[in-house]
């Protein structure tokens, strides 16, 4: 093993950690970053990861990344929300980033609530759509986190073999 392998290993670990954080911070694409970490590890002498496993993990990361955009919209619509609620949830999420973990959770909920109140002045209707947005958002976070942790598991397992 040479210095390049150690540098690549450090870079791969950085991608893995950033990928896990990216599951909680919507600006960062968590699963793709985690996948980049295991892909970098593949090119070192530290681990031997099969091409089939890499392809499967890439597909899973891609599917979950796409679902992350669709699940909150589905949640909002499933609970009766409109495009105002969906847009409000997105704006709330962006603003919520500045308020830490509480803001990341409360932002989409409050954004959807405000968006639906603008659309239709009915608090019961707006609350229902906001809850759907929150459920969709939390489902997306859970899916991304599960995939990034799965990739991290395979990374650690490959390092131990």
* End-to-end C-alpha gap: 16 Å
Shape: elongated
Classify the beta-strand content into a percent band.
Answer: under 5%
Number of strands: 0
Give the C-alpha Rg. 19 Å
| SSE ordering | HHHHHH
Compute the average pLDDT: 90
Helix/sheet category? mainly alpha
Mind describing the biggest β-sheet?
none
- Helical fraction equals over 70%
Number of domains: 1
Uncertain regions: pLDDT < 50 for 5+ in a row?
Answer: none
Tally the helices: what do you get? 6
Short description:
The chain is mainly α. It has one domain. The protein has 6 helices and no strands.
Walk me through what this model shows.
The chain is 84% helix and 0% strand. By secondary structure, it is an all-alpha fold. It has one domain. The longest helix has 38 residues. The two termini are 16 Å apart. 40% of the residues are buried.
How are the SSEs placed, and which strands pair?
Elements: H1 3-24, H2 30-42, H3 51-78, H4 83-96, H5 100-119, H6 123-160
Helix pairs in contact: 1-2, 1-6, 2-3, 2-6, 3-6, 4-5, 5-6
């Amino acid at each position: 093993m040479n210095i390049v392998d150690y540098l690549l290993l450090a870079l791969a670990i950085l991608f893995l950690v950033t990928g896990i954080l990216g599951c909680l911070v919507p600006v960062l694409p968590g699963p793709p970053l985690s996948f980049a970490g295991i892909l970098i590890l593949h090119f070192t002498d530290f681990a031997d990861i099969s091409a089939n496993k890499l392809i499967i993990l890439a597909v899973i990361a891609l599917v979950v990344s796409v679902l992350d955009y669709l699940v909150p919209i589905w949640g909002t619509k499933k609970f009766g929300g409109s495009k105002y609620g969906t847009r409000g949830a997105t704006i709330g999420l962006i603003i919520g980033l500045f308020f830490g973990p509480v803001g990341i959770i409360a932002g989409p909920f409050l954004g959807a609530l405000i968006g639906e109140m603008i659309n239709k002045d009915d608090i019961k209707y707006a609350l229902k759509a906001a809850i759907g947005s929150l459920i969709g958002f939390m489902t997306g976070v859970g899916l991304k986190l599960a995939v990034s942790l799965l990739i991290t598991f395979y990374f650690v397992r490959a390092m131990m073999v």
